[in-house]
Each structure stands twice: as structure tokens, then as C-alpha cells.
Design goal:
The protein is an alpha+beta fold. It has a single domain, classed as 4-Layer Sandwich (Glutamine Phosphoribosylpyrophosphate, subunit 1, domain 1). About 30% of the residues lie in helices and about 30% in strands. It has a 5-stranded antiparallel sheet with strand order 11-2-3-12-13, with helices on one face. It has a 5-stranded antiparallel sheet with strand order 6-7-8-9-10. α4 packs antiparallel against α5. It is globular, with a radius of gyration of 22 Å. One of its GO terms (molecular function) is threonine-type endopeptidase activity.
């Protein structure tokens, strides 16, 4: 019978029999870094909100990054980025994974536009984002995609398994339970942009009062047919 164990493994077993067995690397596997994803990786914690308006979409996020929700590692993280001429995406989960996800999507959008000479639709962009979330190396992300195309305004939540759900408004992140209560009380279909910004800011503020992973002001992205405008606020009231 053929012995598939490498010669170096048999020699090692004879010389050092008390050591654990050797396992050869396998395709698709990565070595254990030894870091605890829940404690040693910088995460955005986060409250992120997306809602449709009469003219487009409003996306709002807080600015805090934390280590396991116990230590504030950064107070000015921009958690919403433009990834398309008329779309923005939030960062939720591990900072590295979320930033890599945004860079990858932005590159694919630019490639699509240069090859086809037209902007990617929101349906196509949300499908692409879901496919990347499911199949890519982007662990622990749960972003919101908000954008405008020829069919109108769209808001999608994208779960870590690649599920894509469209709604008039949505919330993701550690502060979602508190933020949802405030947002559902204030949201009205077809509301104007100023009222939507105020509702989103109040919802992030409410979450920051109770959620240790959220806080330190907010970023608000207003998306319409003319593009994406992102503004930072040190105080929540300044956005009202």
C-alpha cells in the first residue's frame, strides 16, 4: 500500500514523537493569524442608515471605530463612500474588510463604465455587491447601498452571506434596534431631502445614546441625479 505521508513528516515523527502531527497546506485555506476577530480587529461598530426621498437617497452613519466595542480606536472614521457617480456605500464590520470591499466595487464600476460607456444600474451594482460579499474575502460586513438611476431611487441592505434586500429605508450595524425606532417614527414616503437628513441624523443620535459602538458625530451622504455630496458633522444637531 502506498504511504502518502511525506518523508520529512515520518522523520520528524521518529525524532520528536510528542509534537502534534504535521498537516500540509491545502488550497483555499489560510493560516490562523492568532488574532481574535471580535477583539483585536478594528471594527466600525456602527449605526448606518439609508432612506429614499422624493429626489434621491440619504445615507447617514456615525464616525466611531472601536475594538470589540470596548475601546474607541478612532473618532472620525468616514463610513460612507462614493462608489459610483450616483451611489454611495457604507462601511459596517471590520474596517479592513469594509475598505477592501469598497475599493473592489469601485474598481469594477469604473471598469464597467470604461468598457460599456454607460453607468451601471443600481440593480446590477447591488447584485455585484451581494456576489462579492458572499464569495470574497470580506469578513463581517453588512453595508447599505444607496443610489439613483433611470428607474429612480434605491436603498439596499447587503448581509454578510450576500443577501440583497431593497426597501424604502433600512438600518444596519450595532445600533440598529434603537435607530429603527426613531426612523420609523419620522420616515414618510416621498419626504424631501431636508426632512430625510433630519430624520437620519436623529436616528443616528438616538443609537449613539445607547450603543457603545456608535457615536462621535456623523457623516451624511445626499445622492441624487447630479451626484453624491458627503458632509461631516461634529454635532448631530447641526444636521437638523
Amino acid at each position: 500500500m502506498h504511504d502518502s505521508q511525506p518523508e520529512f513528516s515520518r522523520a520528524r515523527d521518529r525524532l520528536e514523537p510528542d509534537l502534534p502531527p504535521v498537516h500540509e497546506p491545502r488550497l483555499g485555506s489560510l493560516p490562523d493569524s492568532g488574532a481574535d476577530e471580535n477583539g483585536d480587529v478594528a471594527k466600525t461598530g456602527t449605526t448606518t442608515i439609508g432612506l429614499t426621498t422624493a429626489d434621491g437617497v440619504v445615507v447617514a452613519t456615525d464616525r466611531r471605530a472601536s475594538l470589540g466595542g470596548r475601546f474607541v480606536s478612532n473618532k472620525r472614521v468616514q463610513k460612507v463612500e462614493q462608489i459610483h457617480p450616483n451611489a454611495a456605500l457604507t462601511l459596517v464590520g471590520s474596517v479592513g474588510g469594509a475598505q477592501s470591499f469598497i475599493r473592489t466595487l469601485r474598481a469594477e464600476v469604473n471598469l464597467y463604465e470604461s468598457r460599456r460607456g454607460t453607468d451601471m444600474s443600481m440593480k446590477a451594482l447591488s447584485t455585484l455587491a451581494g456576489n462579492f460579499a458572499r464569495g470574497g474575502p470580506f469578513f463581517a460586513i453588512n453595508p447599505i447601498l444607496g443610489g439613483v438611476d433611470d428607474e429612480g431611487a434605491h436603498v439596499y441592505s447587503i448581509d454578510p452571506a450576500g443577501g440583497v434586500m431593497e426597501d424604502e429605508y433600512t438600518v444596519t450595524g450595532s445600533g440598529l434596534t434603537v435607530a429603527y425606532g426613531t426612523l420609523e417614527d419620522r420616515y414618510e414616503p416621498g419626504m424631501d431631502t431636508d426632512d430625510a437628513v433630519a430624520a437620519a441624523a436623529a436616528s443616528v443620535q438616538a443609537a449613539a445614546e445607547r450603543d457603545t459602538g456608535s457615536g462621535n458625530g456623523l457623516y451624511i451622504a445626499v445622492v441624487d441625479e447630479s451626484g453624491v455630496d458627503i458632509t461631516s458633522y461634529d454635532e448631530y444637531e447641526d444636521a437638523f
